[in-house]
Amino acid sequence: MIWLIISVPFRLSLVLNFNEICSQSYRAALEEVEGDVSELEQKLDKLVKLCIGMIDAGKAFCSANKQFMNGIRDLAQYSSKDEVIESSLTKFSESLEEMIKFHNILFDQAQRSIKSQLQSFVKEDLRKFKDAKKQFDKVSEEKENALAKNAQVPRTKQHEVEEATNILTATRKCFRHIALDYVLQINVLQSKRRSEILKSMLSFMYAHLTFFHQGYDLFSELEPYMKDLGAQLNCLVMDAAKEKRDMELKHSTIQQKGLSADDSSYECNADAENGVVMEGYLFKRASNAFKTWNRRWFSIQNNQLVYQKKFKDNPTVVVEDLRLCTVKHCEDIERRFCFEVVSPTKSCMLQADSEKLRQAWIKAVQTSIATAYREKSDEAEVSKQKADKKPSISNTSPVTETKLVKGESALQKVQCIPGNTKCCDCGLPDPRWASINLGITLCIECSGIHRSLGVHFSKVRSLTLDTWEPELLKLMCELGNDVINSIYEAQVDKIGVKKPQNGCQRQEKEAYIKAKYVEKRFVDHGRESALVARKKSLSERRNDSRLSSTDKSLGAEENSRTPTRLLGRAMTAEFSSEGSRELLASTVSSNSLYEQKDEKRDSAVFQELDTKKLPPGPQLYQAAYEQNLPAMSEALAHGAEVNWVNTKENNSTPLIRAVHGGSLVTCEFLLQNGANVNHRDAKGRGPLHHATVLGHTGQVCLFLKRGANQHATDEDGKDPLSIAVEAANADIVTLLRLARMNEEMRESEGLYGQPGDETYQDIFRDFSHMASKIQKN
């Protein structure tokens, strides 16, 4: 017999006899050991899970602490103007950041000591114990089966007896080995259990010791600074208490005086450094049908009246230039304290909170108007002095003057025309406004008077603030103040009327301008002097740089090229933001922009125009064909009807005649003076039909921009698009299709009366620039 003493957990010893290995006491001891190991596993699993929860909570705490530290740092940056707060908060945030690092180290150590070590013990050592138990249970069952089989063998069957005996012997031997291994695993587990648990807990406690030592050292270094800050804080508290007492004293003083927020706080300051003359709340009457009143923050600044709905909103300009406005009281409405600011284009009804405020606002507007005029006069005087110091340019060399402004702004290009450097009506230097249908330059005050005449007499536009289309710019360069004054002021000296000068009263200027343009009192109905001035102007323009030999050769070269027609692409074009531009670039050839002029001019007509005095209507009609803008202006001044019908030539109008003349600028001049772009001749063809038939691409573009009806059909039932398709003119087909697509898009989106897609406008704008650059007038 073999005897073995085994140490079992919890101070339990067993003496095992392998012949009695299946005794009840042995099985009870094993079950007790197995129960202890199972309970140990549960305890360790629970401890590991609690450790994981603690670590996760600690990391969440560190994350929240870090956000809190970032908030302190943001507050320090916000308090950059207060050095004490900024420095203290920065130092505190740095200390808290160090503490966060220490916390992270502590949680990392807890993860290594508790979680990792105990999880390894559970997963490795306890797993080995379970595997040994499985093998022990299996071999115990095999031994029981061998014993049962050995007992069942009959005596008479000797060979079966021997076989059962051998199996039983082998099974017992295997059982002994497995039982020894199982008992060994139990003892190893018990001894390792003690070391692993104590080792992990001791490491965890040392981690806490290190953490608290680091925190203590950190705050020991910070403690002197905190004491100094506490002393400063006491001083700050006393200063705050003193300031509070002073504020309470001032508050009580103000209450005793009874000073309320009255109108005295609103004063007009025309010399304010920020340009704001006056500001405050006013009620504004809306221009809608309900005439609602809304309270807005108004201000007068930089010679403009603007308002804001909210403080951060961009200001909305009510009046762009107060010099063009007048202000007056309004006593004919139900509300009190109302006044009105009237400009040439609109009026704005405003209401103040009291009568004093209303008077203050009216005074501020009037002061701004006077100041603006004074500043303008000073600027004009300075400009005049600078001009006197500069070397003068001879009037006999317009070519050099034109070249100096080549490629520069619209203002410079227009002012280089003879007479345009001064206002056409009062002579003020450096005019910044223009009348586009008359072709003259104006000062700010005269432009305001022209606006009051109405657009059927004068269409005013700014040379610096507005965007100028190329055909309008060419129109301005074709006329000028000298040409127009030779027509509209031909009889000034004979009649004895004194022309107003700079500095005259507005009423005097207004009376003169109305007599000049509305009543046409100074026009020479003999027209001899105007014809002479016109011939002189035409002679000067022939010497201009625009008709230099270089430009002529360039025009001849452009005329010699054969245009490329891409009808298929034009017919299948899609109207999109990028596709339209690519299609335009590929289909519109530069030489197609050049309008072929009819060289077959009737010389007899020239002789008749020079020697005979045609009636105003026929003169306008013939001058439109000859591209003679001064003669057209003269005919209009003498009362020519802009839509005069020539019954001898299929009821053609001057605009249709201008189409045959081939000039883009002539058509623009007639349109600006009220020509009907949709008037049709006896064959049912309007200007757009004629431009399409002649292949004048630039004129087609102009008429489409001015609202020509491309759906109108002639007596043959053809509209401009069908005519262009038959002529295989890809450029005009492209323009007509783009215009039709844009019209369909506006109708589908309900954008009636609006220009439509921005891409469409950009394409036509680019096309106009190209056409005007190549067009020869």
How would you characterize this protein structure?
With 777 residues, the protein is of the alpha+beta class. It folds into four domains: 30-249, Substrate Binding Domain Of Dnak, Chain:A, Domain 2; 269-374, Roll (PH-domain like); 399-532, Annexin V, domain 1; 548-774, Ankyrin repeat-containing domain (Serine Threonine Protein Phosphatase 5, Tetratricopeptide repeat, Alpha Horseshoe), CATH 1.25.40. Helices cover 60% and strands 8% of the residues. It has helices at 24-78, 83-152, 158-257, 355-389, 398-404, 410-415, 444-453, 470-478, 481-488, 492-495, 506-518, 528-542, 549-560, 567-571, 579-587, 590-593, 603-611, 616-626, 629-637, 654-661, 664-672, 687-694, 697-705, 720-726, 730-748, 758-774; strands spanning 3-8, 12-17, 276-285, 293-301, 304-308, 316-319, 326-330, 338-342, 347-351, 433-435, 440-442, 460-462. Strand 7 and strand 8 (338-342) form a beta hairpin. The radius of gyration is 51 Å and the shape is elongated. Mean pLDDT is 75; it is low at 1-17, 259-265, 390-408, 528-539 and 541-612.
